[in-house]
Amino acid sequence: MKHLAGKHIVLGISGGIAAYKSATLIRLLVKAGAEVQVVITPNGKEFITPVTLSALSGKPVICDFFTANTGEWHSHVDIGLWADAMVVAPATASTIGKMANGIADNMLITTYLSAKSPVFVAPAMDLDMMAHPSTERNLATLRADGVHIIEPEVGELASHLVGRGRMEEPENILRVLEDFFTPKTMAGKRVMITAGPTVERIDPVRFVSNFSTGKMGYAIADEAARRGAEVTLISGPVCVKATHSAVKVVDVESARQMLCAAQDAFENCDVAIMAAAVADYAPAEARSSKIKREHEEVSCLTLVKNPDIAATLGRAKVGQKLIGFALETEHGEHGIENAQEKIARKNLDMVVFNSLADAGAGFGTDTNKITLLWADGRCPRECSLKSKADVACDILNAIEELCD
Ligand code: CTP
Description:
The chain has helices at about 20-30, 50-55, 75-80, 95-100, 105-115, 125-130, 135-145, 170-180, 215-225, 255-265, 310-315, 330-345, 390-404, and strands at about 10-15, 35-40, 85-90, 120-125, 150, 155, 160-165, 190-195, 200-205, 205-210, 230-235, 250, 270-275, 280-285, 305, 320-330, 350-355, 365-370, 370-375, 380, 385.
């Protein structure tokens, strides 16, 4: 994901315990390629030191209107204009009140009043302060002024009371910003994605499956949702979770269940991406009770072929774009030939080839190395080893080209 790369973020920090999370937020923003300028309130400095913040952001932290010994003036107007976004995290009740009412008695508030960019506020306070009518009134004023409120979580607070007022986690604040800066190039598109393995029961405690973790399919689902698509993710049993709240997850277990869910969703979709590692075979019969070692001699397991979901959809296709994956164990020409053969056999428009023979590619890794192949005969596109989030961007860029 490169949507935050090069973006200028002003991070306003006010005086609350959650200021310790600002350090992580800066790290995440910098890692995502953003430039961060911290503006802190005098109280904020009591909770986290400017040394930590400037070391992480790589820029001097601004707190005062002037540097005392040199008389250098810090222009809140320039900082406000520099910003592509301003994020106030943590935002205390006091800072929220000052923002809502234009009480410009510190650098953070004057910068806010000068900012032309979108502004995000992540409240952090005790539950009673959060629920107080004055806080609610001030937040309503900020919303009406066009400020984006990143809602606090319910959880344990610094007071050890449990309630609403915990600042949203830095990872989620980053996601809100990434979402905001992602161009909505797939708005109006309905995208169906299969992900993860399928699990074929032998008995209630044993099964036939594969090593798929679902990471690739989930990364595609999150990115498609960020781009504004309506996403249905049909998922086999996995431990990963969709991070984008707009992804609709349909949980299934077996290939047959996945086929039913996929056929349902396919009818009304524009794009179907088959990222699941469907088990090709299932036990002919699933026993209803556990096979006992002492009582039975199981010397062979009879397997039957599962339906080919991609090929079934390929036959039913009426204008949808159908994208398959080909996970091979060979790389180079031979792997590509196998992948190409799947385009014809399953009536795919595009296939994403990846090989277990490439280090960092395939099941369970956070990275992948893919080659894209098309049904219309254009040249294969080989991509370098990247994070699965970045690979998801490459795949969706290619799908957007296909849909043009
Ligand atoms: N696929 C599917 N249903 C199956 C098997 C595969 O929908 N029963 C889909 C996968 O999700 C993938 C594509 O078909 O998008 C290719 O899967 P792959 O396992 O590589 O191909 P197979 O057809 O199973 O062929 P083989 O395993 O022999 O290479």
